[in-house]
Design brief:
With about 375 residues, the protein is of the alpha+beta class. The chain contains 11 helices and 11 strands. The mean pLDDT is about 95.
Length: about 375
């Protein structure tokens, strides 16, 4: 048995702008955060996979052959889904043991799932000698979540977690998958306010929203909602069901907000970027209906708090966290205000950090 321990790490991500735009082939601005998931383990000399979650205090052991999602604990599916993708794509993989640990709050919209999937893909590549380019690795992780977990997620989370750059927002074109890094002003901090309302995207709302968007694109006669403008959509309003129209209005407007946001960051116009964040949240609340009263209250509190440029829900929605762009030096006051605005709120002060690949390179 090989017992040389291997360690891999992948950060979570926070979405600055671009809510549910990724699977509509649109645009996203996100950051890798300074927290994430670590896998430590080694190869085995058989075809057994043994996983231990330090945070949950649970162990899952399963045979590599005959992996089945329904036969394993939900938390282990993010890892075993990636293993399953290695098998399906004829990539080298055999038995191994790994302990999972992390400091990302679960269910807070920081994509602990993509963080775990990416850490797993890096671990398997390192342990078994697979050479994977970043976009292929991101797609493996995405496919694992589609097929083994049951969430039809886009690629935003996996790409940002892998390719984020310290001090920059990661700008992703989700059609060409071109990635650019846009400087974030060094006079801002990012505060993630976890509402304490746990979101479970597997419950179905995420997949429903995705189906609504696909129906809207089909009704508009465009390949994806990325190809529609707000003006075009409004001119076709009478031919769309009300719900489908509002879902599309959010996505089309959100793509326009991302492009405006990139321009604002390049010009160093943080107040303008903050306005776009508030507009994004309002559209999530009214058009996409993926907010909740707790998130709305956190955003309203932020709007009235000195030092906050902008706030919005971040991630899939239906609970989770808000992201707040804050003037440096005001963090303590903003955290105090947000945590006292609602029971059960916890805050994480973070910044744009390096993604998993940069972190891995620096530790080689």
């Amino acid at each position: 048995m090989s017992i040389n321990p291997l360690t891999t790490y992948a950060p979570g991500r926070a979405e600055l702008l671009g809510n549910h735009t990724d699977y509509n082939e649109g645009f996203v601005l996100a950051i890798a955060v300074d927290r994430g998931t670590t896998l430590t383990g080694h190869r085995r000399d058989d075809r057994t996979v043994r996983l231990h979650s330090r945070d949950l205090g649970q162990t899952q052991e399963t045979a590599l052959d005959g992996l089945a999602s329904e036969k394993v604990a939900p938390w282990s599916r993010y890892v075993l889904g990636v293993v399953d993708q290695f098998l399906r794509n004829d990539l080298p993989v055999s038995g191994f043991e790994a302990e999972i640990s992390g400091n990302l709050p679960m269910g807070a919209g920081l994509s602990s799932s993509a963080s775990l999937e990416n850490a797993t893909a890096l671990f398997l590549a390192k342990a078994f000698g697979a050479k994977l380019d970043p976009m292929y690795m991101a797609r493996l992780a995405q496919k694992a979540e589609h097929d083994f977990v049951g969430v039809r997620c886009g690629l935003l989370d996996q790409i940002t977690s892998l390719l984020g750059k310290a001090g920059h927002a990661t700008f992703i074109d989700c059609r060409s998958f071109e990635v650019q890094h846009v400087p974030l002003h060094d006079k801002v901090s990012i505060i993630l306010a976890n509402s304490g309302v746990k979101h479970a995207l597997v419950a179905g709302e995420y997949n429903e929203r995705r189906s609504d968007c696909e129906a809207a694109a089909q009704a508009l006669g465009v390949p994806a909602l990325r190809d529609a403008s707000t003006n075009f959509l409004q001119s076709r309003k009478s031919s769309l069901a009300d719900r489908i129209y509002h879902r599309a209005l959010h996505i089309v407007g959100e793509n326009e907000r991302v492009l405006a946001g990139v321009e604002a960051l390049r010009q160093g116009n943080i107040p303008r970027f903050g306005e776009l964040m508030y507009a994004s949240h309002e559209s999530s609340r009214v058009n996409f209906e993926n907010s909740c009263p707790e998130l709305d209250q956190l955003v309203e509190t932020a709007r009235k708090t000195p030092g906050v440029y902008g706030a919005r829900l971040s991630g899939g929605g239906f609970g989770g966290a808000t992201i707040n762009l804050v003037e440096k030096g005001c963090e303590e006051q903003v955290v105090q205000t947000l945590t006292t605005s609602l029971p059960g709120v916890s805050c994480l002060v973070t910044h744009a950090a390096d993604g998993a690949l940069a972190c891995a390179a620096s530790h080689q």
